Amino acid sequence: MDIHRPERVSEALREELSEMIAYELSDPRIGEAVVTEVLVSPDMRHAQVRLHLGKQPNEREETIQALDGARHFLRHQLAERLNLFRVPELHFESDISPALSGRVENLLKRVRRGRPRE
After folding, report:
1. What are phi and psi of 111, to 5 degrees?
2. pLDDT digits (tens, 9 = 90+) for 36-82
3. Residue 86 contacts by C-beta under 8 Å, 6 or more apart in sequence?
4. What share of the chain is helix, strand, coil (3-state, %, to 5)?
5. Domain range enclosing 88
6. Domain total for the chain?
7. Cα(114)–Cα(70) distance, rounded to whole angstroms?
8. Where are the beta strands (DSSP E) in the chain?
9. CATH of the domain at 37
């Protein structure tokens, strides 16, 4: 068995979920949600999706609730896009590490301005 498979699946899920949440979900409760990390269990049945969310605590809760409501849609889309035997159950949570939060904010500001990385 390939020991790096969960890592590859995590990265593929992160890329696809980032794109779907940013561009394909039209729920107004989802603010600036950025997928920072996806952790897949060793049996590939569950995936913990960590998100960098807005600054307000009530915005965070609304975004998590909206994504929980869209969980089945997201799993269905992942099944169509990725060639996986089993698409893991998605569990969303807020990633509030201060070091990462500042870095993500800086990257988002640069993207909005259209400036390349220094």
Report:
1. -65, -45
2. 999 999 888 999 999 988 777 778 888 999 999 999 999 999 999 99
3. 44, 45
4. 50, 15, 30
5. 5-113
6. 1
7. 30
8. 34-40, 46-52, 89-94
9. 3.30.300.20
Q: Identify the residue whose tokens are 């809760």.
A: 61
118 within domain boundaries: no
Measured on CA atoms in the order 3, 93, 65, 99, is the torsion positive or negative? negative
Residue 34's nearest CA partner among 23, 45, 26, 43 is 23
Residue reference for tokens 């993207």:
111
> What's the one-letter identity of residue 108?
L
- What are the tens digits of pLDDT across the range 2-14? 778 888 999 999 9
CA angle 59, 77, 40 (to 5 degrees): 70
Count of C-beta atoms within a 10 Å radius of residue 74 = 21
In a domain, 65, yes or no: yes
Query: pTM above the 0.85 mark?
Result: no
